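Board notes, transcribed. Complex of a protein with zinc ion.
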Amino acid sequence: MKKSSLTGFILAATLLSGCATTTNPSVSGVERKQFMMLSEQQVVAMSTESYLATLKEASEKKTLNTNAAQITRVRNISQKLIRQTGHFRQDALQWKWEVNVEQNDQVNAYCMPGGKIMVFSGLIDKLKATDDELAAVIGHEIAHALREHGRERMSIAYAQQAGLVGLAVLAGASKNQNAATVGVQAAALGSTLFFALPNSREQEREADRMGLELAARAG
Ligand SMILES: [Zn+2]
């Protein structure tokens, strides 16, 4: 490809990807345009791989779902929230949602792209969280996934680090789903990026608003 047409192609790809918004506003009214370069499939694939590795590791350490009452409680609350996700995006109702609890003192929870939820027991035990409080936290984490904040962070980091050459490769990859090598590189980078890059203030505000709506709708 000639340099001028390559530049034009990159520009077009960037502009196109810059116009995306991942969710319906519903009553929360979140409708910011998002910069997306990596495809949703790429990000969900690498996240699923990372989540499976986490489950395997926790299972080996015997820290996965050790408390039957706790996991039942967390799954019931999560299912009520998940049933409401269609208000923001219909496709989420068909996601392969998973909910697990890891024995871990950290007061934390996360939902990876594609609906892979992990709640740390520290969040429940240390805070003595009520069902409503757990729903507020899990709703917030689900909102991050619905809004694809992970994909957005990865896209920005990728664009910043890869430079023009990387952008050209990515743009080519999004046109050609068979670009396996690019997918492998992205997968290696993906889980690192998901956990290393913090959500922005704006992303946190969006997750708060949408998460609250999910919790309210779920009762
Ligand atoms: Zn958050």
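Residues 46 and 173 are 15 Å apart (CA to CA). Strands lie at 98-102, 109-112, 116-120.
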